[in-house]
Design goal:
Largest sheet: 2 strands, antiparallel
Number of strands: 4
Order of helices and strands: HHHHEHHHHEEHHHHHHHHEHHHHHHH
Radius of gyration: 22 Å
Strand order of the largest sheet: 1-4
Number of domains: 2
Structural class: mainly alpha
Distance between the termini: 66 Å
Length: 472
């Protein structure tokens, strides 16, 4: 049956090869199980969003399993899916505050509604074949700048969560010189472990980094209470969040947390407002271009491209769009294709059986929720994952057309605007608004697609309304 369903022989692979490839892909992307609940709940930042940690954990695993299964069975590609890094930060730092500013009763529910609407729009675009028009509306340089800028932002937050970068009233931020702090020891162990393993191309390097950091945190948690009053009263221990925020799990295996706190809680009506329109648009662009880049990149690596075209592209886009809609219903941010799928391809994965294997492993992970909450609830453990993912996303900056000033300036504004304004939306706005204007002033008006003017206009209108509301 597997042979007939996935055409294994035709694709030059076997069941064993596909299973190993699926395990490899899962190991490289499983960090999202720990990171996603910590991000969406606000636990990672000490700023609760109102979303339930356990429900997000279940939503993350179920959404990843459902999405990967759809991709594997319908599109038959060895590409796994899960809630995307970048989109989750946009959700927390931009969409939720925007919903709150617009007067939403439950801001996170309105933000989920925006994700749902963007998924429906993506689904419609896939059904009517309008993918190319949307894909061409933003220049390659701007696409690369968005990914790189979000990478810088994620890495910056990771450094802050670790306690390595501190707020300072005189210089905005400064380096924490207290490298003996338990928080920083945990962070550096995780970062260096993951970085060293990644450099050696060890599968699951980020996951191993998280586990190494968790082991050190556990040792500290067990030993610190027995170090004596002279030590526990020292500034090193007093300044650590480990004693108060890191709690050991009572057990390893447990029934999955309930989905009820987030299931079908998205506020679609609240998302269908003028105030939320720019954020729906940005969610749409982010998931669309994430999908395009991942599909093309992984398919090219696997040798699945035919005459520079992607077979079954429509099915792949429909799989991704359906996953985002389902994810919003379950209670998690945008679900997208993962570039980490390339690691499974390197292990020989060529068919949808690889993605189906990943789906099964995400479901199995549901029963380890106590460990997930223990590791995800203490920021220095997950901070190394943010720094490494951010560093890898920054590689996209190499694709910016630096020699073309009409592309350089808007891309640069996005690249630096996102981390420096501490807002993905504000950074994108700087680039999206300036892009058509710089093109026109530079005598390149023909390069501007209609969608670019529409997005720029929506962002200008939004900021004018926001400023008017603030003044009132």
């Amino acid at each position: 049956m597997l042979q007939r369903l996935f055409r294994l022989t035709e694709n030059g692979t076997t069941v064993r090869t596909e299973l190993v490839a699926g395990l490899t892909t899962f190991l490289t992307m499983s960090y999202i199980i720990f990171v996603q609940p910590a991000v969406l709940s606000g636990v990672m930042f000490g700023r609760p969003t109102g979303m339930d940690f356990g429900a997000i954990t279940t939503a993350t695993c179920v959404a990843a399993a459902l999405a990967s299964a759809i991709m594997g069975l319908y599109a038959r590609y060895p590409i796994a899916q899960a809630p995307g890094m970048g989109e989750n930060f946009f959700f927390v730092f931009t969409a939720i505050p925007a919903a709150a500013a617009a007067g939403a009763a439950v801001p996170w529910a309105t933000a989920l509604g925006a994700v749902f609407v963007s998924g429906v729009l993506f689904l419609l675009l896939s059904l009517v074949g309008a993918r190319e028009a949307v894909m061409n509306s933003i220049s390659p340089s701007m696409k690369s700048a968005i990914a790189a800028g979000i990478g810088l932002f994620i890495a910056f937050i990771g450094l802050q969560n670790a306690g390595l970068v501190l707020k300072d009233p005189g210089t905005a931020v400064k380096l924490n010189p207290n490298f003996g702090s338990p928080d920083l020891v945990v962070f550096f162990v995780g970062l260096l472990t993951a970085a060293g393993l990644h450099a050696r191309r060890v599968r699951g390097s980020i996951l191993w980094g998280i586990l190494a950091a968790g082991l050190v945190a556990t040792v500290f948690k067990l030993l610190l209470p027995h170090l004596g009053d002279a030590v526990t009263s020292s500034p090193v221990v007093a300044q650590s969040a480990l004693a108060t925020r890191f709690q050991l799990a009572d057990h390893i295996v447990a029934a999955p947390p309930s989905l009820e706190p987030t299931f079908l809680k998205m506020d679609v009506r609240g998302a269908l407002t003028l105030a939320m329109a720019p954020y729906v648009t940005i969610f749409l662009f982010m998931v669309f271009f994430d999908t395009v880049g991942t599909l093309v990149g992984v398919a090219q690596q696997a040798g699945l491209m035919q005459d520079d075209r992607l077979p079954r592209a429509r099915q792949a886009f429909l799989s991704d769009a359906t996953a985002t809609v389902a994810g919003a219903c379950l209670g998690t941010s945008t679900v997208t294709s993962y570039i980490e799928s390339a690691t499974g391809v390197e292990q020989g994965g060529r068919t949808g059986l690889t993605a189906v294997t990943v789906a099964g492993l995400f479901l199995a992970a549901l029963f380890f929720s106590p460990v997930i909450e223990m590791l995800g609830g203490y920021a220095p453990i997950t901070a190394p994952a943010l720094v490494l993912v951010g560093a890898m996303m920054l590689r996209n900056a190499a694709q910016i057309a630096w020699q073309d000033f009409t592309e350089l300036l808007p891309s640069f504004l996005v690249l630096v605007g996102i981390p420096l304004t501490f807002s993905i939306a504000d950074g994108l706005a700087l680039g999206f608004i300036s892009y058509p204007l710089v093109k026109v002033l530079g005598g390149r008006a023909r390069d501007v697609r209609p969608a670019s003017w529409i997005v720029a206009g929506l962002l200008v209108l939004y900021f004018l309304m926001a400023r008017s509301a603030a003044a009132g």
